Amino acid sequence: MSTAGTREEQRGDERTQHTGEAGPARPAGPAWRTGGTGAAAGRRGSGAAGPREWAHDLALGARFATSGGRQGWLRTLLTAVGVALGVAVLLLAAAVPEIISGNDARSEARSGAFNTASGKAQPSEYSVLGKDANNRWNGYQLYGRLLQADGSSPATPPGLDHIPAPGEMAVSPALKKVLDSPEGKELRERLDAKVVGTIGDEGLLGPYELAFYKGADDLSVPGGAVRVDKFGSPLDEDPMDPVLVLLVVVACAVLVMPVAIFIATAVRFGGEQRDARLAALRLVGADIASARRMAAGETLVGALVGLLLGGWFFLLGRAFIGRFEIFRISIFPEDVTPGFYLGLLIVVGVPVTAVAVTIFALRGVAIEPLGLVRKSEQRKRRLWWRLLPPVAGAALLIPLAGGLETGGTVNEVQVSSGVVLLLSGIVLLLPWLVERIVGRLRGGPVAWQLATRRLQLGSGNATRAISGITVAVAGAIALQMLFSVAENSQSSESQASRYKSHVDIYGPHTTLADTEALTADLRRSQGVKNAHGYLQSWVEAKGIEDGVGITVGSCATLRAVARIDECRDGDSFLVRTPKSVSEEQGGATPPPKRGTPLMLDKAPDDGGRSNYTWQVPGSARTVMGIELPNGGSLDGLMVTPSVLAEKRLDSPSFQGTVAMERNAKALEALRTTVFHTDPSYSLWENADQETADQIGAIKNAVLAASMAVLLLIGASMAVSMLEQLRERKRQLSVLVAFGTKRSTLGASVLWQTTVTVVLGIGMAVFFGLGLGWVLLRMLGDARADWLVFLPSAAAGAGVIALVTLISLPFLWRMMRPDGLRTE
Amino acid sequence: MSISHTLLALLEESGPRHGYDLKRSFDERFGHDRPLHYGQVYSTMSRLLKNGLVEVDGIEAGGGPERKRYAITDAGITDVADWLSRPEKPEPYLQSTLYTKVVLALLTGRDAGEQLDTQRAEHLRLMRELTRRKQGGDLADQLICDHALFHLEADLRWLELTAARLDKLATEVRK
Amino acid sequence: MTSTASTASAGSPRGAASTAESAAQGAGTASEFLLSASGLYKTYGSTAALDGADFAIRPGEIVAVMGPSGSGKSTLLHCLAGIVPVDAGTVTYAGRDLGAMNDAQRSALRRADFGFVFQFGQLVPELTCLENAALPLRLAGVGRKEAEARAGGWLERLEVGDVRRKRPGEVSGGQGQRIAVARALAAGPRVLFADEPTGALDSLNGERVMQLLTEAARETKAAVVLVTHESRVAAYSDREIVVRDGRARSMAGAL
After folding, report:
1. Under a CB-based contact definition with an 8 Å cutoff, are residues C248 and C65 in contact?
2. CB–CB of C121 and A450 under 8 A?
3. Most buried pick, A776, B76, B103, C179, via CB within 10 A?
4. What is the pLDDT of residues C49-106, one digit of tens each?
């Protein structure tokens, strides 16, 4: 290596001697080529760079990032802030599984096996009777338990050091605040106990959770209570609804992808100035590979600073999270911790991506000593390889069609990689599409001509700037489609509730007397127009797959729910669904035939005991049901108490429907009424509020997140737009000198963005609807709402319009003649 | 280059002095390549004396030859001024004359910038003529004109440079 | 306006030549000049780019503006063309005061009556050479076909008709500059402002561009304000003015 250099010099000397030329001109040759130590030069010459060259060049690049004066710092800072915002979002996303598992752990720690059959402890010194008293208040979920100690040293749930005495309760700090406030009057009356203690953080899911443990003395296992001798049994929770899992997986995929694109954009901030500097370095002898490494080194600094800054943003946001409730859910900051592997992936992946993006971006250009040469004879973009990822994504997703229809499970890896691959099609196909379409544009007014010609010459920058937004929009569209279907599946009852305001009440344990008493109380409650309550049980029947509902009640009660002319104790009725209801629900359940054998008192684990069979009385008369305020009707079998004693029914439950004013105060009063009967009774404002709320919360979260992502990308678009304008400063000035109207130039900028945006958003709509359709097929639901793309597409277009608007004043400034000054 | 005007201007700057001192002064500033012969100075001063541009201020007797001390007359001062403000006919290789004039203008407290502008105007006049001739002429004409144009331009560029450096030059010359 | 005409070199002793110049500028009838300016002041930040400059040009006249770098030559051109507003002083074009016009009016004037050639970076890289040359016509409202036909004729005249379909990045500097000249002349300006038009060219190309530019200007009777620091370029003018320290002085009297 060094010998080569020496030989070169020798030859140079010989030539000098031979021709007698002046000395100084020649030796410059080899010196120019090496530009460093002989060894390094030799290796560079051979093309492959060793780790030492890498380290050296990266370090040199890093120096440029920090030593470029105010401009240099600004550029590095811009990249760092961009990367930091992206990293913060990624860290938050990486913390989501931990938040969920942290939440689960807290739930498990305080669970008293109320939801499982495992709570079958024998009474002892340590055992405690507990009963679910979960509740709602003004849209807040209250976690509540009634507790009753069997002995003198009972087990306590986390956050509590003793079981409250009857008539006393321990509450969470947030609930205490509510109870102490004037708005808490209703809740004070409902809970009706003296606050004697506070639940510690370890017993709460979040700092703002409303929770209470109330002491009781009337709990019994038959009355719905569960006996436990320790808290913290593993929760055997229902697995999450696969639709929800699908939503969450897709949401994460479509939100993280634009952020990744955003980071890739952010590391290219200030690229123009950097290119000029690299050209200068080439002039003094750096080769192309080492110039690229230096560029990578420069980016690396921004990325690393961004990583640190992002970590700091994340910690800042985490502390912030502890102080706020999002969608009425609060989280302890310490639960918001990214998982180790995901965190590692971010810490390693972001800088590596930054370097990769920089090097990749410089592939299309040659850094020549006299400036950057974009390879003007660009190859036409090819279509075939751009189609591979989206096709692969579709291939992963389409076979899953119908997979969730019958309640299958979601293969998260397959779904998320399918979604990412499919959406990557936008990023890959958009440049091709823009090139193809713009290439055909001709003529038009000057502004249009300037815009289209500019795009024809190089549409890469323009499309790259919006690719993040298009992916975000496509993802949002797909999600919207899923949401609209999930909401639609809330079926007839919620539709009925549109014109009738009603509340359904369900209690797992009741007696006939309690049912009558509660129904009377409900009728008396504030704002109630009408209330029906009855005791019902669901029993298995031979030959009827779904079983038969048996309603037990007095003639008066039964008359309220069916058209019954004559009724005496001892009568029984077979109820037909009224036409209005069957039309609404698209079908009716025929009543059981007389003499059908029904299996009574069938416990799930009753050992070898034989089932007690009871037959539908032959005297049962067929009557028509009455449409209830909730839009449904009772069907099946109705009996008066002497026909079938309530005690012979397995878990007789209370079913109630209340027609009332739509009025928050009346609703809270109703809740209090029910709570005083039995805290474990549930109320629904409509049929499936729980799931609807869950879906609503995810929908809100996703919408908020996609807005945040859109704004984030909008910010990066603004930055690169301003950069592009600054690059064109001289040109704009010349055009102004010509007397070009500002409006013409403004219009050309607008046209330029409009063309790319229309194509980009069109692409986003196409892919978004496509992805949504594929996902819907997974759910086996083809009822797609094809117009859901409008809001997301509008939001995307809005952000781009905003960015253009923001850049206009800058454009005006660029159009000042200062750009003509060269001195 | 006019030696008589140069000596006259030097005399104006320094006040009355001997012919030999004038020669030394000339040699220092302008005679880098070719020092003046004293005989040339002597004959020039005699001619100036005859034309009334200088007068004899006094004679010093000493051990050597007779030494006359000369002083400039009013007519001499006017003559220097006319000479300095008169543009030189543009021709190749006249730098030394231009340089002499610039330095003398500075030495005698005149506006050298204006002098340069005058000279440039004169140069440009010739250059325009040449350009015109070139545009109308055949290839030979063009080559000849271009040769002249490039030399004239070189002169002017030197003039520009000199003008830009006047301040520095002024302190240099006066120290 | 006439009263301020002599502020330019007040304080400096002036020879007979300067007095003659004052007369030419100050005493000349206003109608004699197409474009004139007096007492121009322009400051960028704390540096005075123009410090009381005067200027006048007759219809069809070619005037070279000379002076060292940073003397304010380009600023003078920008002010004369109404590209930048002056801090003080008046610029009069064809009897109209540029200072009294608003930006839109000045832009319209530049589109209709002025043409521009700069040293470099003036062609829009995305447009073809023909489209570049047709740009001023199109800005002035001429239809695309006609504008391109007219501009094409000018490209032929300037010996760059063969590159009309290429983009500026694909042609040589000399060709680019010819295209710029064609563009400046295509709309038939009455004043052509050229700021170091040959600054980035070699001698041969520079000579040719100047020759074509002046020939075309003389033929179309366009006045040319030619900013240059090269005397060989200035030799194509009818007379020159020199800008030094933001003050312009004419050497017209030396003629």
Report:
1. yes
2. no
3. C179
4. 888 888 999 999 999 998 877 788 888 998 998 888 888 899 999 889 988 888 888 8
Convert the pLDDT of each residue in A741-781 to its tens digit.
Answer: 888 888 888 888 788 888 888 888 899 888 888 888 887 76
Distance CA B59, CA B17 (A): 10
Grouping H, G, I as helix, E, B as strand and the rest as coil, residue C212 is helix
Contact of C76 with chain A, judged by CB distance below 8 Å, is answered with no
Give the residue from A438, A461, A734 with the most C CB atoms within 10 Å of its CB, the best one to mutate.
A734
Which has the closest alpha carbon to A340: A101, A79, A80?
A101
Is the pLDDT at C223 greater than 90? The verdict is yes
Q: For residue A663, which phi and psi values (nearest 5 degrees)?
A: -160, 120
β-bridge partners, C193 = C116, C225
The domains located in chain C, with CATH, are 2-254 (3.40.50.300)
Domain range list for chain B: 1-86, 88-175
| B1-86: in CATH 1.10.10.10 | yes
Mind telling me how many Å the CA of B131 is from chain C's nearest CA? Answer: 7
Q: Which residue has the tokens 């909730």?
A: A630
Residue C84 touches partner A, C-beta closer than 8 Å: yes
Instruction: Let me know if chains B and C touch, i.e. at least 3 Cβ pairs under 8 angstroms.
Output: yes
Task: Summarize pLDDT for A651-679 with one digit per residue, the tens.
Answer: 778 888 888 776 777 777 888 888 877 87
Domain edges within chain A: 1-39, 52-110+242-376, 112-228, 403-490+688-823, 499-687
Q: Do C139 and A738 touch (CB under 8 A)?
A: yes
Contact list, A457 vs chain C (CB under 8 Å)? 125-126, 167
Q: Is the pTM of this model over 0.95?
A: no
Sign of CA dihedral A165, A168, A174, A175: positive
- Contact by Cβ (8 Å): A127, A228: yes
**Residue A203 has what pLDDT?**
81
Residues of B in contact with C229 (CB under 8 A): 160
Cα–Cα distance between A693 and A718 in angstroms, integer? 37
What span, in angstroms and rounded, lies between the C-alpha atoms of A282 and A64? 14
Contacts A–C by Cβ distance under 8 A:
79
Q: What average pLDDT does range A142-159 have in this prediction?
A: 82
Q: pLDDT by residue (tens digit) across A347-368? A: 888 888 888 888 877 776 666 6
**How does pLDDT run across C200-217, given as a tens digit for each residue?**
888 888 888 899 999 999
